[in-house]
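Onboarding guide, step 5: your first structure request.
Type a short instruction followed by the sequence, for example:

Predict the 3D structure of this protein.
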Amino acid sequence: MGMYEHKHIYLQKKERTELEQLIKSGTHAARVIARARTLLLLDRSQGQKRRIKDVVEAAMVSQGTVSNLKKRYFAGGLDSTLYDKPRPGAKPKIDGEVEAHLIALTCSDPPEGFDRWTLRLLADRLVQLEVIDSISHVAVGDALKKMNLSLGG
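The system replies with structure tokens like these:
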């Protein structure tokens, strides 16, 4: 049993209102809404004294989820309970600026001696123009596909 198992959540009126509005808006991720619902069910500020078992059933989450939410609430408050921290990872290589250059290149005439652009030619040209440090022809192909562009044929 964790140290938060027997601690109870008493939401402030402002927090309750925020959670209720979040649920009603319907514009948040399902997991955020489920967490908000669970917190409201755990809240004892309104006199309800639901057991963990009842909260698990009503919110349709696991007991582990309830335990984790309590832990997160006591450690960091409402926002850290509802929302996950950003996860580390590489930023996408192709941003809007690179996409714009890629579109412009794709629509332009191919280099002298070539009938049309190839993925490798486009990748090489983006590097030559110093739009991007390095990029593979596969990444160029994926970007074109994502933008619904093709090199024709």
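Each response can be followed by summary notes, for example: Helices lie at 13-25, 30-42, 52-59, 63-82, 96-107, 119-128, 137-146.
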